[in-house]
Amino acid sequence: MLATNIYPWLTFYRRQGRDFEADLEASIKEVKQSGADSFEPILSTPEKTDRLADVLTRNGVAMNSAYVNSTLHEKTAIQTSIDSVLKLANIAQARMGTKIIVTNPSPIRWGGPENKNDDQIRLQGEALGQLGKALSAEGLTLAYHNHDPELRMAAREFHHMLASTDPEHVKFCLDSHWIFRGAGDSNVALYDAIQLYGDRIVELHVRQSKNGVWTETLGDGDIDYSLLTKVLNDKGIHPLVTIEQAVEDSSPNTMDGLAAHKISHARARTLFASLLS
Asked: Which element (helix H / strand E) includes 172?
C-alpha cells in the first residue's frame, strides 16, 4: 500500500495556478493516475470529509490515513479541538475504513518565530495523550507528526510529545525531511529519532532534497532512503509509506504535479518495496 499526502499536490497545483479542490473529481483522478493506492487528506469539516469520501470511492482510491490539525497548547481550545478531531476521524473511519489519524499540534502562529513555553508544552503533551486514548477507544491509531519548528530549542517540543505520552496511545509519524531540515539538515538527527522512537513509527512521510532544496521528484539526494529502509527493516518496522514530494519556491520547475508524482510513486515502489504491504 503506497499513499500520497495532499500537501505536495497543493504545492504543485499552486505553482500551476490551479486549485486542487475546485474540481475535486478531476484532482482525485490525477491521484489515481499517479499510481498511489491511498490518499491522505487534511480533514477540516464533516461536509468536506463526506464529499471527499464520495469522490475517493468513485475513483477507487483508499484513505488509510488522514491528517487533522489540532490546537492542544491552549487550555480553552483543547476540548473543542479534541472533539473536532474525533468527529472527523469517525466519519473517515465509517466511510473509508481509515486506520491512522495524523496530527501536528498547531504552533503559536504558522510560519512564525515564536516558541511554546514549558507550560504550553506540558499542557500539549497531556492533551495529546488524551486525544490518543480517545482515538484508541474508537479503534483508531493516533500518529504524532512534527514540522521543523518543533526541532528548535534543543527539540524540546518534539521530544516531550513522545517522551511524555503513552506509547500505547500515541504513535509516531516519522517525517524524515522535516526532522532533517529542522535539525539543520542533519541525517544524524534523523537516525537518532529512529533509534529513540522507532518502535512507535506507524507511518513514514517521504520527501527528498538536494543541497537542502526540495526536488520535484523522489530520487537520490540529501537523505539516503535505501539506508533508511534498511534501518527500518532491520528493526522490524513496516510503516504506511506516504509520499510527500512537495515543491518550494527554490525547487526546479520542469514538470507538472501529475508527471512528478508518477515518477516519484514509481520510484517509491522500488525503493520501499520491502516496506509496502
From this structure: strand 170-175
State the DSSP string of 11-35: HHHHHTT--TTTTHHHHHHHHHHTT
Q: Which residues pair with 144 in a beta bridge?
A: 103, 172
How far is the first Cα of the chain from the last one, in angstroms, to the nearest whole number?
A: 5
Work out the number of other CB atoms within 10 angstroms of the CB of residue 276.
16
CB distance 72 to 105 below 8 Å: yes
Nine-digit cell string for 112: 512564525
Alpha carbons 276 and 241: distance in angstroms, whole number = 7
Counting Cα atoms < 13 Å in the Cβ hemisphere of 227 gives 11
Helix (H) or strand (E) holding 203: strand 201-206
Say if residues 207 and 221 touch (Cβ distance below 8 Å): no
Q: What is the pLDDT of residue 193?
A: 97
pLDDT tens profile 182-233: 999 999 999 999 999 999 999 999 999 999 999 999 999 999 999 999 999 9
Domains of the chain: 2-271 (3.20.20.150)
Q: 210 and 222 in contact (C-beta within 8 Å)?
A: yes
pLDDT of 110: 83
Give CA–CA dist 2/92, Å, rounded.
18
Set of cell numbers at residue 165: 505520552
pTM here is 0.97
